[in-house]
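Entry 14. Two folds queued back to back today. First construct below, sequence then structure tokens.
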Amino acid sequence: LSDSRQLKVTTEALAFQHLDHDVTQPRVALFRDAIVEAIAAEVGAQGSRTAFQGLKIALNYAGGAFIYVRIRYAARLKILASSWATANREAVQHAEGEGSGEPGKSGRPSGSDNVKSKLLGDTERQPLRQERQNLSVPKTFPEMFRFNAAVMGFGEHAWMMEVLRSFDAIVRNVSTSYRLQEECDVL
């Protein structure tokens, strides 16, 4: 308690471990009073009023920090969940579009566009267009992950695909500390 910076770091770490619990002011008061009463029953007359008051202050501080962290980081966790869902939704839609066999889903211009370009004398741009058509720009998280792995020289390593498969569970459980730890241990 004498090192305020360390107290803050430790309290924030505990608060992050309790993000999956709905910590509210009434619950903090109930928990604080129950702990103080249980300790008072154990120590009896040996406990001083000052010690119990100090314990109440420490528990109020921790409870307030839990509430603060939950409120402060709730919006960020929602953004993370929303972004992750969007990235995965696009991956599912992209995979469905490739396998559908529907014309126009490949992202390449139709034959009529190529004919029109040649008829209009746009032959100088044709190599550039062809080069752009052959580029495969990653549009989903798994595609970008694979692209980055390949660029870093890890594209052929099986363990990179294990990391990719683990990302979903890790991101989905970021606010549940024990599950996040479990997923990281599995990885």
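Second construct, same run, same settings:
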Amino acid sequence: EMSILEYNGGSVLAMVGKECVAIACDTRFGIQAQTVATDFSKVFRITEKTFVGFPGLASDTQTMLNKLRFRLKLYSLDEDREMQPKTVSNLLQTLLYEKRFGPFFVEPVVAGLDKNNKPFISAMDLIGAPLLAEDFVLSGTSSEALYGMCETLYRPNMEPDELFEIVSQCLLSSVNRDALSGWGAIVHIITPTGITTRRLKGRQD
């Protein structure tokens, strides 16, 4: 019996570097074992320096993104400023927890730089229980392989270029061990001076 969280497949990874942060996802969209599309990103830029990844059920990925963007627009109208990554994470936890008896089947990952350019990453489960880490967080169907790769390759205080290499290796190696993730990847590197986004080619099987 397959979990609803695994129905469409997909994985998201976020990792911290020196004054920079990376968030990456695979691009597969499937229905159980059948691959339907190979250009489905689960990571979205929601403020200037904050990205959110929504692995899980694809329909809830889109629903949660719409709900989050709506709340962010209200916040910027009320507050006259952009929401900080920590606040985005807290908001997502609230949105998920208030629907805990009929949850959204997504396990979000938040990554960004705050107003002092300090990296922030967090992940949570489908009812909003948070996981805050100093090194990396991850979510999705290849999480076991991802934990192994990240624990092995992560080093503190990586520069943006090295962070990109490590995140890319972690993600590609892990999704190759998972039938429900893969078909390429998208990696975003967030630095104080801007965002770099790279598309990676993966195994097509």
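Quick look at the second one. The helical segments are 58-79, 85-97, 143-153, 160-175. The CA atoms of residues 37 and 44 lie 18 Å apart.
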